[in-house]
Structures are given as C-alpha cells and as structure tokens.
Automatic annotation (TrEMBL):
One of its GO terms (cellular component) is membrane. Keywords: Glycoprotein, Leucine-rich repeat, Membrane, Receptor, Repeat, Signal, Transmembrane, Transmembrane helix. PANTHER family: LEUCINE-RICH REPEAT RECEPTOR-LIKE PROTEIN KINASE FAMILY PROTEIN-RELATED (PTHR27000), PIRIFORMOSPORA INDICA-INSENSITIVE PROTEIN 2-LIKE ISOFORM X1 (PTHR27000:SF768). It is a single-pass type I membrane protein. It is found in: Membrane. Its main location: membrane. InterPro entries: Leu-rich_rpt, LRR_dom_sf. SUPFAM superfamilies: L domain-like (SSF52058). This is 2-alkenal reductase (NAD(P)(+)).
Length: 169
C-alpha cells in the first residue's frame, strides 16, 4: 500500500497545537492510522465529543503500532468509551501513556505493567473502576503516576513502593 512510503513520526489530531490536524465532523479510527509504521507519537485532543455517538478503541489494530509508538495521548474525548485495550501493554517502546478526561471504563489492565520504558502514566478523569493492579510496580522507570478522578478502590499495592524513580503520585 501507499502508506508504506509515509514516514510520519508524529500525528496530533485536534486543537492541541497550531500545526495539529483538525478533527473531522464524524471522527472514527481510520485504518490508515495503523499503517504508519514509523509513528512515534499519536495524540487525539477533543475529537470524540458527541455523547450521542460514542466510540470504542479498536483493540485489534493497535498491535501494528506496538514496535514504534513511544507516546500515546487521548485528552478530553468524553465519547471515547469502553475498556482501555490490554494490547497497550505490548507497546515495547512506550514512554508516555496519557488518557485524560475520556470515558474509559473497566479496570486498569494488568498488561500496563509490561511497559518497562514507561515514564508517564496518566489515566485521570475517566470512569475506571476496580483495584490498582500490582503489575504497576514493574514500571521501574516511571516518573509520573496519576490515576485520580476515577472510581478505583482498595489499598495502594505494596509493589508501588518499588517505583524508586517516581516523582509524582
């Protein structure tokens, strides 16, 4: 396909920066995004906002970006609903996972603990529930952990004590 020739490394969609692409009127995840094999940064800001037309993240397509993606952000997308895909735990190079003010539900996936290079994990302002997974203690390079404004319960796992680099909790 033609997308093999595209060397896009950073894609920001929404009114985030002056040079960001604007959101479409009827936003959805087009298959072409998942063909950008050199993509390092992907951001969606304020794109999925219609509560009358909710959308879920397509869990099966993200694997194509697992080898290249270093930063993934979804900010202020209230109609982006459903669970956080467990496949995100397969992103070998991911350093930043920021999911702020969306409609994500369900538990924080245990697989997030596989992200050995993760420095920033921000899941604030969603509708996540359940306990904080022990596997987050595996994120030894983590600097920022923000799980605020969700419906998480229980005690903070003891494994969080192994996060020696943590600057913000």
């Amino acid at each position: 396909p033609i997308y093999e020739f595209w060397y896009v490394t950073d894609l920001s969609i929404g009114p985030l920066h002056e040079n960001s692409l604007s959101c479409s009127q009827n936003p959805k995840f087009r298959p072409q995004i998942f063909e950008l094999s050199h993509l390092k940064t992907l951001s969606f800001f304020n794109c999925f906002t219609s509560l009358h037309d909710p959308i879920t993240l397509p869990g099966d397509k993200w694997e194509k970006l697992a080898a290249s993606l270093e930063s993934l952000e979804f900010r202020s997308n209230p109609s982006l609903i459903g669970p956080i895909p467990t496949v995100f735990g397969n992103f070998q190079k991911l350093e930043s996972l920021v999911l702020i003010e969306n409609g994500f539900t369900g538990s924080v996936p245990q697989s997030i603990g596989n992200l050995r290079h993760l420095k920033r994990l921000v899941l604030s302002g969603n509708k996540c529930s359940g306990q904080i997974p022990d596997s987050l203690g595996n994120l030894t390079e983590l600097l920022i952990l923000d799980l605020s404004r969700n419906s998480l319960f229980g005690q903070l796992p003891l494994s969080i004590g192994y996060l020696n680099s943590l600057l913000k909790l």
